[in-house]
């Protein structure tokens, strides 16, 4: 560990200087030799570092999502060149270059945080051994050695002997209880952060080996923290627990407000957005406009939750535009009123098709028109005046032959025009 500490010695002085500045502020409130002053100084150091790492965290999110998108293509390359590892590596690098992704980007926050972690460990180890380091002089060293967090010295470890703990002014029981509780909280926060990433913020439509790797890390990381935690000083446990809690809260915020497309978190997010847009009848800010614009631009490439979002807006009489705005739609869902009239949600009546008449009604002309309010303008064959056509000469028998003279009125269901005479019945 001394070799690793020497590698990060260039940052030991800045880290110790930041801790001393925070200690000067909290020392005036809680006392310079209290555990609250030194503990809150370490917590403030973590918050300051994580705020500086926010741009890297955003880049990590983008890189992780890009890697999730590339998993199907990576799997195809692995299957195609499974017997040629060199060609497989070349195709992988070519894919990364074409898409502009970098697998190491997802590890940037951890890599950037590592120097601060080892520098803090080196500072606390110097306090435990009674050595001045960085800007921490003898008075500050004595103050830090006398500081206790819930009865445990700042530089004590879970595996320390009772004599070493007594030299720091504490009991072995207090040290082990406090360190055990902090290790459990540290492991739980790490497990919960990874679990919510797997259960809520993963595209459920794509099954890739990346998901299996994340699931494995969900159980491996807590075990690693438990193994290494028993060898960390209390001050380092405070640092690591604080950064885990920060990561968990940051992850919860990202999952709620910027979920992965196709995940359960996106379904919940779009449902909340749909309620807000439907209630106000428009997108309220630039962020909502950007989300609606991105969904509209996808077209047929929308996933299940995005299609449901667009369809729900349409049923509510709203239309999502290409610029991200939401306007009143001209057409909406069709509903049926109590009187049987079909209307849309916007109130416009739906055009009805006239009812089809039966054959007997068309022949007799007695059917009512589709709209009774309209006057009947056409005359049927039976309503034509008798003198509309000239009478033909009657035959000698005085009867009317079929097809001559005035046409007889066709009965319902009977064919009009000349009728074939019936054959005489056989007796």
Which features would summarize this protein structure in a list?
15 helices; mainly alpha; about 5% strand; about 425 residues; about 55% helix; two-stranded antiparallel ribbon
Kindly state the percentage of residues in helix: 55-70%
Mean pLDDT: 75
Principal-axes geometry comes out as: elongated
Strand order across the largest sheet: 1-2
Q: What is the percentage of strand-forming residues?
A: under 5%
Order of helices and strands: HHHHHHHEEHHHHHHHEEEEH
Question: What is the CA–CA distance across the termini?
Answer: 128 Å
Write the layout of secondary structure elements.
Layout: H1 2-7, H2 12-30, H3 35-52, H4 54-80, H5 85-99, H6 108-129, H7 138-146, E1 148-149, E2 152-153, H8 162-167, H9 172-200, H10 209-229, H11 234-257, H12 264-280, H13 286-298, H14 304-315, E3 318-320, E4 326-328, E5 334-336, E6 342-344, H15 359-364
Antiparallel strand pairs: 1-2, 3-4, 5-6
